[in-house]
Amino acid sequence: MNDLQLKGNWNVLKGKLKQKYGDLTDDDLTYVEGKENELFGTIQKKTGKTKDEISKELKEWIDS
Fold it and tell me: How many CB atoms lie within 10 A of CB 33?
């Protein structure tokens, strides 16, 4: 998944992440261009998933 896909679909993905992982807050999911690694790190801490697992899940949501 490239950064353009992530940025363009972020509001939809953010909602899906919050639904699936109730521990994630709006502050956790604040998308800041150039800080994608920090965002993935926060999601990893809250979900216990790897970056690859998270990327795969987000890509599936974008493609569906």
Answer: 8
